[in-house]
């Protein structure tokens, strides 16, 4: 029998054709995988920008027609973001900010601080007078609340994110719920829909049960315990969201919460905040209550309401100390001084709760600079600001006896370099030329 057809000239030719076929199959597979990745990345980015466009355009909690004005974040200084939980169940009433959380993150050290602001804090509200701080949201939406928090704490607020009960529950459901140890049974009759009933013990909470957990005020310390549980919930959600598998669900999460969310984070801010969020050290995030117990007094105001009157200056110093502890790494390597200390006077652990006074580090009297004009801090401590002017962000603190190298001057402000290598502006009247 005669076999027809072209025969390979050699076994090498046959092998070469086989290898080429395998290569083509692999390249085809790789091309398909790359195409899928590109399509998903495009969808991912589209979802994020669509979310930002929606929450910036449709603002269910805002009042008035004037555009929101907040501090500008350049991406290199401390960023402060307000997270607001809004009770918007009663459509006949203006929504109230049931939860006020302040997240402060340093883009250099990647360290973060989370503060929960007690809603019964008695402060001055522009156009309202002395009132509970959550009345700011009810009277002027996010705009007035941001102004009030800035005046109260004397720090800039750059962004806010507000969501209501449904939005919070959606977030918890999409991430698969959270595991929580409920310390005591929680029972509270509300409106028939948002009633609270949780048994004590370790359990897995879905969105509605997690909402019960962070809303309940029936414990011995009422709102103090409630804000502590809210900070706990933020850390639990942050831990779950930081996993790679959960990042894949981000488009779904954004889609679910869009109808219930409002924010001023624009597309131009997205990349900076997203990059910082990925790198931020949420595992070591310090969490605090504002005002701290030692800086408040519980009173009854003229309307018969129980309020928390804060020691304003002590609270401001407390916040500066906690935020200041994120300004410098615990160690700067072999710099010859055993590692630079964190602002706040402690290494590796933030400041103390000693009446709100800044905790002085040991003063190094050795001149840290070679030549040039120097200045000495004459007060207990001086704020180091990003730009000249008290309206600009505080990026650190220098303490009594510290020596600063003067690099320049703008009006009444010196542009200085600290012994730890930080640059910033200090008011000239608070230092003494050497």
Can you put this structure into words, describing what you see?
- It is a single chain.
- The strands form seven sheets. This protein has a six-stranded mixed sheet, sandwiched between helices. Strands 20-19-18-15-21 form a five-stranded antiparallel sheet, with no helix packed on it. The protein has a two-stranded antiparallel sheet with strand order 4-5.
- With 434 residues, it is α+β, with helices and mostly antiparallel strands.
- The protein has helices spanning 11-57, 135-153, 165-174, 207-215, 223-241, 244-247, 250-257, 267-279, 312-324, and strands at 79-87, 96-105, 111-117, 122-125, 129-132, 159-164, 178-182, 186-188, 196-198, 201-205, 261-263, 281-290, 296-300, 306-310, 374-377, 381-385, 394-399, 403-410, 413-417, 423-427, 431-433.
- It starts with 10 loop residues before the first helix and ends with a strand.
- The longest helix is centred in the N-terminal third of the chain and has 47 residues, at 11-57.
- 33% of the residues lie in helices and 26% in strands.
- Among the domains are: 79-290, Aminopeptidase (3-Layer(aba) Sandwich); 374-433, SH3 Domains (SH3 type barrels, Roll), CATH 2.30.30.
- The chain crosses the membrane at residues 26-46.
List the helices and strands and how they pair.
Elements: H1 11-57, E1 79-87, E2 96-105, E3 111-117, E4 122-125, E5 129-132, H2 135-153, E6 159-164, H3 165-174, E7 178-182, E8 186-188, E9 196-198, E10 201-205, H4 207-215, H5 223-241, H6 244-247, H7 250-257, E11 261-263, H8 267-279, E12 281-290, E13 296-300, E14 306-310, H9 312-324, E15 374-377, E16 381-385, E17 394-399, E18 403-410, E19 413-417, E20 423-427, E21 431-433
Parallel strand pairs: 1-6, 3-12
Antiparallel strand pairs: 1-2, 2-3, 4-5, 6-11, 7-10, 8-9, 13-14, 15-18, 15-21, 16-17, 18-19, 19-20
């Amino acid at each position: 029998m005669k076999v027809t057809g072209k025969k390979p000239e050699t076994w090498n030719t046959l092998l070469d054709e086989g290898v080429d076929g395998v290569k083509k199959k692999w390249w085809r597979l790789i091309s398909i995988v790359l195409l899928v990745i590109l399509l998903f990345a495009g969808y991912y980015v589209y979802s994020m920008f669509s979310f930002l466009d929606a929450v910036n355009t449709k603002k269910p909690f805002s009042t008035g027609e004037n555009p929101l004005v907040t501090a500008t974040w350049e991406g290199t200084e401390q960023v402060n973001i307000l997270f607001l939980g809004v009770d918007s169940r009663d459509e006949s009433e203006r929504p109230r900010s049931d939860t006020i959380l302040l997240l402060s993150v340093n883009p250099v050290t990647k360290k973060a601080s989370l503060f929960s602001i007690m809603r019964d804090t008695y402060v001055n509200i522009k156009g309202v007078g002395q009132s509970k701080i959550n009345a700011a949201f009810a009277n002027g939406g996010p705009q007035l609340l941001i102004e009030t928090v800035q005046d109260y704490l004397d720090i800039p607020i750059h962004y806010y994110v507000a969501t209501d009960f449904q939005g919070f529950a959606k977030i918890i459901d999409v991430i698969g719920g959270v595991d929580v140890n409920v310390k005591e049974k929680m029972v509270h009759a509300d409106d028939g829909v948002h009633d609270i009933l949780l048994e004590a013990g370790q359990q897995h909470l879905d969105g509605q049960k997690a909402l019960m957990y962070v809303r309940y005020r029936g414990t011995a310390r009422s709102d103090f315990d409630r804000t502590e549980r809210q900070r706990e919930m933020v850390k639990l959600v942050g831990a779950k969201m930081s996993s790679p598998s959960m990042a894949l669900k981000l488009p779904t999460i954004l889609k679910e919460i869009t109808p219930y969310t409002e924010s001023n984070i624009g597309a131009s801010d997205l990349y900076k905040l997203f990059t910082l969020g990925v790198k931020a050290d949420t595992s070591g995030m310090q969490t605090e209550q504002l005002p701290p117990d030692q800086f408040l007094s519980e009173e009854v105001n003229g309307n018969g309401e129980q309020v928390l009157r804060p020691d304003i200056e002590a609270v401001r110093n407390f916040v500066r100390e906690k935020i200041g502890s994120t300004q410098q790494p615990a160690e700067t390597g072999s710099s010859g001084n055993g590692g630079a200390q964190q602002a706040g006077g402690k290494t590796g652990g933030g400041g103390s709760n000693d009446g709100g006074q800044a905790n002085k580090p040991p003063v190094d009297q050795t001149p840290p600079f070679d030549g040039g004009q120097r200045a000495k801090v004459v007060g207990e401590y001086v704020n180091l600001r990003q730009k000249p002017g008290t309206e600009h962000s505080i990026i650190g603190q220098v303490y009594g006896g510290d020596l600063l190298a003067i690099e320049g001057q703008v009006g009444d402000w010196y542009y200085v370099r600290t012994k730890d290598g930080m640059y910033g502006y200090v008011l000239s009247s608070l230092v003494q030329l050497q």
